[in-house]
Amino acid sequence: LRRHMSWVKGCTIVGDKTYDGNTRIGQSLRERGLFLCSNKVSFNHPYYNTEEGKVDYKNNNDNGDDALRLSKDGTKVEVHLSIDLPNKFSGFLAMEKRRG
Prior knowledge:
This protein is of the alpha+beta class. It has helices spanning about 1-10, 25-30, 50-60, 90-100, and strands spanning about 40-45, 70, 75-80. It has a 3-stranded antiparallel β-sheet, with no helix packed on it. A hairpin with a 6-residue loop joins strand 2 (about 70) and strand 3 (about 75-80).
């Protein structure tokens, strides 16, 4: 992933000591680790999209679980999970916002 982003996409992962292109920003952030985080993930639920699972979901979908919901077209039960970004991202994102 790191090499692909750098070589193929021309967009390095911030904090990558090997592929950051030796930029000023890259050098200043190297010691803080990779600025790579998956903070949101969505996928089709493996059980609730089976025939048996669809019945269970229909009978028990009022459990208040925001992570489970129907797809926009109403045909699949999806799982949606997210976490806050790690603290080290705050300063970097603020700096990027100022750069415009």
